[in-house]
Design goal:
Distance between the termini: 62 Å
CATH class of the largest domain: Alpha Beta
Radius of gyration: 35 Å
Strand content: over 45%
Largest sheet: 7 strands, antiparallel
Number of strands: 23
CATH topology of the largest domain: Bactericidal permeability-increasing protein, domain 2
CATH superfamily of the largest domain: Bactericidal permeability-increasing protein, domain 2
Number of domains: 2
Number of helices: 8
CATH architecture of the largest domain: Super Roll
Helix content: 10-25%
Shape: rod-shaped
């Protein structure tokens, strides 16, 4: 009975582990090309760390034929050169990253003192370590905050050859007991190397902690970029699934739609690929709509002075005579607002946004109060272009079509088609420039301090925006 219960619990946990995985709004893929670039940067950091190895002083005695016991003391050892000429890095399936270093070398300088019989002597020595190899497995996962994390999984160091040359005093004699010094120095290096490698990895962990899992966009919205699934690691790439979802600052409310699966191209020509699903943008529309941000007032002073059509009852009177008759020589105000969240759809080489809303038209009375004129229901289709600038996703919109229908009128029935031209103009010269100015500010993508994109390419596929880019690390 107990065995059966344990078996059922195991099955339940296994099933839960699969059901807890969710589709991301943003998927990031790191390729072997990125690892090769990171190896160049990482080996420099590792080399600097290994130069910090401290080899403690030690003493002992050795028996030298003819002379007998020689008591020695080795002090002041310091690393003058540490070379890592051959290194390789690759993905460690299911675990993280594997790093291997071969034919490394160390040059160490130190001081010696000896005493035998009634004679004391001293001098210096040079120690050369060759055929040093280091293998390190770096485990990757997500931490409690939803950020990627790294740890040293396994580390092994193997000291190849040690060659000691003494200088000063009777160095010809002291070279005879150099083999007695090899084991203490070899042991000391073996104890120090892997902790220094782990220290370098901890430095990488500190950089990963700089990833902003929540980025404030403006007073209305923020983006959450926490990891929603364990990091997936194959032998050729590593995938990170970020939530990639906008929320209203006032209320974290989930939209009534879910992110679809995100698939990335199989090519590995770039260091990194980012896939943004429609969900990313549509969650933004849901957040901004819920925050009441998808509305704008249009007044006459927003229309460039060179345009002959003005936002007043005189101009509109030519199209809707009742307006000029009821409210002669008055300025007007139009409130354009969404009736629901806009919907973005990505198709090959094309992004369209469809929006349902209304325009409430008012006459501005002499006492500054508003007299309702009419309400127009609108359906707008716009095309979008996206690009990357300074680690942000930027965009611009262009009006494709605008369909109007009369929702309500306080000035009697009129033909809506007569207003098509002036409203097209108002949206093109007032509304879209405002939206495009906001889109030009960009939306931050998840990144690490001092990391930047190099020559990013943006391609629109079915239901997904793919960014292919190389990366650069530097201050």
């Amino acid at each position: 009975m107990l065995a059966k219960m344990i078996w059922m619990v195991m099955i339940t946990l296994l099933f839960a582990s699969h059901t807890l995985c969710r589709n991301p709004g943003l998927k990031a893929r790191v390729t072997q090309k990125a690892l090769d670039y990171g190896r160049q940067v990482g080996v420099q950091v590792l080399q600097q760390k290994l130069r910090e190895i401290h080899i403690p002083d030690f003493s002992g005695s050795a028996h030298v034929s003819v002379i007998g016991n020689v008591h020695y003391k080795i002090t002041g050892m310091r690393i003058e050169d540490f070379g890592l000429p051959q290194s390789a890095v690759g993905f460690y399936v299911g675990t993280g990253i594997k790093l291997s270093i071969d034919n490394a070398y160390i040059h160490i300088h130190g001081n010696w003192r000896v005493k035998y019989l009634f004679i004391k002597d001293s001098g210096s020595f040079d120690l050369s370590v060759s055929r040093l190899s280091i293998s390190e497995a770096i485990g990757m996962n997500r931490d409690a905050t939803g950020r990627p994390s790294v740890r040293s999984a396994t580390c092994k160091a193997n000291i190849g050859n040690l060659d000691i040359k003494f200088h000063g005093g009777g160095s010809w004699l002291y070279n005879l007991f150099s083999s007695s010094l090899e084991n203490p120095i070899r042991s000391s290096l073996n104890r120090e190397i892997c902790p220094k490698v782990s220290s370098a990895i901890n430095g990488l962990e500190q950089h990963l902690k700089t990833i902003q899992v929540s980025s404030r966009v403006d007073k209305y919205a923020e983006i959450e970029y926490s990891l929603v699934n364990p990091i997936a690691i194959t032998n050729i790439f590593m995938d990170l699934d970020f939530k990639g979802e906008f929320y209203s600052v006032a209320q974290h409310k989930e939209p009534p739609f879910s992110p679809p699966p995100v698939s990335l191209p199989k090519q590995a020509d770039h260091m990194m690929y980012l896939g943004l699903s429609d969900f990313f943008a549509n969650s933004a529309g849901f957040a901004y709509y819920g925050a009441g941000a998808l509305q704008v007032n249009i007044t006459d002073d927003m229309i460039p002075k060179q345009y002959p059509i003005r936002l007043n009852t005189s101009s509109f009177g030519a199209l809707v005579p009742q307006v000029r008759k009821l409210y002669p020589n008055m300025l007007m105000l139009m409130n354009l607002h969404a009736n629901r969240e806009p919907v973005l759809k990505a198709a090959p080489n094309n992004i369209t946004v469809q929006a349902l809303g209304a325009i409430d038209a008012f006459a501005i009375l002499p006492n500054s109060s508003l007299a309702p004129l009419f309400v127009l229901d609108i359906f707008a289709s716009v095309s979008a272009k996206m690009a990357i600038s300074k680690m942000k996703l930027i965009g611009s919109l262009k009006l494709n079509s605008l369909h109007l229908s009369l929702g309500h009128s306080d000035v009697g029935h009129f033909k809506v088609a007569s207003l098509q031209g002036i409203l097209n103009l108002a949206i093109k010269i007032v509304v879209l420039p405002k939206i495009n100015a906001r889109l030009a500010n960009g939306f931050p993508l998840p990144t690490v301090d001092h990391l930047s994109f190099v020559n990013p390419l943006v391609k629109v596929n079915q239901d997904i925006l793919v960014i292919a880019t190389d990366i650069h690390y530097g201050s």
